[in-house]
Structures are given as C-alpha cells and as structure tokens.
C-alpha cells in the first residue's frame, strides 16, 4: 500500500468510526448557529467538553446570539461562567459578542481574517468555526489533532509547544481535498484524540486506525514522555484562590452583591496571597474592589 492509499484508508476508517462513535454534543450536527459553535469552542479551550455541556446549554438559553450576550451585565456573564475556569475567557467572549453585533450586524463573519480580527479569537478558534460551523475546508490544529496525526503518520509523539512548520505541513497534507470530508476529518481526528488516542493511555486495542499507525508499529516509543500540556499544580495556586473568591461572589444570596472584608478573609488563610489575588481579579475586570475592603462582581 502506498502513502496515498494509506491516507485514504485512514480517512475512510475514521469517518466510519465517527458515524457511530461521535459524542452527541448539543453544538454538533448542525443543531446550533455558528455563534453557538463559537461559544462551545471558547468554553472547551482548557475545559473538557463533557463538563462544558450544561454551561453551554444554560448560556445559550440566556443569550442565544451575540447581541443578547453583548447586552448582559458583566456580573451576569461571570456568574454564568460558573466553574468553567479561566474566567477571563468569559469577558473576552462578551467583547467578541459586542464586536460581532457592532461590526457585523449580529452575524458571525465567515472569513479567517475577519474571525481572527475579533477579540479573543485566535487561529484555532477561527479555523474550528470555519470548519465546524461553515463547512469550509481548513486545517484545524489543536493538541489532540497534533498528537493523533504525529503518532499515526510520523510514528512519534508531538513535541507540544506552538505548532512547528513540519506539523502544519503534515496537517495540511493529510486534510481531504473535499470540503465536507475535511470537516468530518477534523472532527473525527479531534474526537479520536479526546476519547481513544489520549496522551497517556491510548486505547490502541479499540482504535479504528491501529493497522495504519506508525507509532503503534514502532512499539509506541516514549509514550507519554513528551507531555503536550505540562501538568499544572492547582492546590494552593493563585488560580485556586481566585476561583474561591469568584465562587463566593456567585454564591451570594439574591439581593446581596457585596462580599464583606470579614467574609473575604475567612476564605483563605494566607492574606497576602489573598490580597494579591483580589488585586489581580480587579485588574482583569472580573471584580470591583470597594473602598471599605469589600468586593463585588462588576455591575
Ligand atoms: S493505534 Fe494507538 S497510538 Fe495509534 S492512533 Fe490509535 S490509539 Fe493512537
């Protein structure tokens, strides 16, 4: 079998696998708008898709389009973001919504340059929206896709970090020429990386492309050694402290918006770290610090 035949066989096997194994997520299979796809992509960066589903559903019920989100208060947006993590993403998403409403009459643009010109939208999100929402032929490059393609076609682990020119060349080279097939390809490779060809414990026994995988054939050299994403300690970090403060604000009873200083101090024993975190939340626009030492979500 030559390279072209092998590539084609990988595509067919993955497409068949996708037909029966794709997770039934509410933003897939044309069941939402391009804006809904964009929201799902922003929420899924750094957060597992299965955790995103209830947040996405509540979010889209509250703000089904960019104009609706643009009009929400910052406090509502931060509260709805809940425990998705990295809450600055919520503010960037609202900035993006305002730009879509103001520049594009509430219609998500469909060119790469226009999409990447929106606040918070980088190469990955723009490519994913063009592929998944608009059906365009474009290579989507994320951690899962890089890991799977590097293993299958190069027989080695992806190096992580920013994508190298050789990786970009590979991703583009194996992308099907037909637009519809390229969409299925992007989705199925990404899904395989999320559910079967995982970083540490790939399930090669049930993998649909195992017979063509150069990494498996080579004995899975260095499996998991090159972590594509370094493990991050969470306990005791500023991220944890910031999350605790935001959780306390979200959990205030109706009609109460201010977290008093005494309550803040009860949240975390190290008050130096606590105050640094409160200052950084304020700098990021996620809370307002009040003169009496209390804090509240931005109004
Ligand atoms: S055979 Fe194993 S390493 Fe290769 S793509 Fe499948 S799961 Fe990944």
UniProtKB/TrEMBL annotation:
Stored InterPro entries: DNA_glycosylase, Endonuclease3_FeS-loop_motif, Endouclease-III_FeS-bd_BS, HhH-GPD_domain, HhH_base_excis_C, HhH_motif, MIG/MutY
Domain of life: Bacteria
Domain named HhH-GPD: residues: 43-195
Catalytic activity line of the entry: Hydrolyzes free adenine bases from 7,8-dihydro-8-oxoguanine:adenine mismatched double-stranded DNA, leaving an apurinic site
GO biological process, one term: base-excision repair
PROSITE patterns: ENDONUCLEASE_III_1
Family listed: Belongs to the Nth/MutY family.
Protein name: Adenine DNA glycosylase
Taxonomic source organism: Bifidobacterium aerophilum
């Amino acid at each position: 079998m030559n390279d072209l035949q092998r590539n084609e066989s990988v595509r067919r096997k993955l497409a068949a696998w996708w037909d029966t194994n794709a997770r039934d997520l509410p933003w897939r299979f044309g069941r939402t708008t391009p804006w809904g796809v964009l929201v799902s992509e922003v929420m899924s960066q750094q957060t597992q898709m299965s955790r995103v589903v209830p947040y996405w559903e509540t979010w889209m019920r509250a703000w089904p389009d960019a104009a609706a989100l643009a009009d929400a208060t910052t406090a509502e947006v931060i509260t709805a973001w809940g425990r998705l993590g990295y809450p600055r993403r919520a503010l960037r998403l609202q900035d993006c919504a305002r730009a879509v409403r103001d520049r594009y009459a509430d219609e998500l643009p469909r060119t790469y340059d226009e999409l990447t010109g929106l606040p918070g939208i980088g190469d990955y999100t723009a490519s994913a929206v063009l592929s998944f929402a608009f059906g365009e032929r474009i290579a989507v490059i994320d951690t899962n896709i890089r890991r799977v393609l590097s293993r299958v076609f190069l027989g080695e682990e992806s190096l992580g970090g920013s994508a190298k020119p050789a990786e970009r060349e590979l991703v583009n080279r194996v992308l099907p020429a037909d637009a519809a097939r390229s969409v299925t390809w992007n989705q199925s490779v990404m899904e395989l990386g999320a559910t079967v060809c995982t970083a540490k414990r790939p399930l090669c026994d049930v993998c649909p492309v195992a017979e063509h995988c150069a990494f498996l054939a080579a004995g899975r050299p260095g499996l998991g050694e090159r972590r594509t994403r370094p493990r991050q300690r969470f306990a005791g970090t500023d991220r944890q402290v910031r999350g605790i403060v935001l959780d306390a604000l979200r959990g205030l009873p109706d009609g109460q918006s201010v977290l008093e200083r005494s309550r803040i101090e009860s949240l975390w024993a190290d008050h130096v770290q606590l105050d640094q975190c409160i200052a950084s939340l304020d700098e990021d626009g996620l809370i307002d610090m009040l003169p009496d030492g209390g804090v509240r979500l931005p109004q």
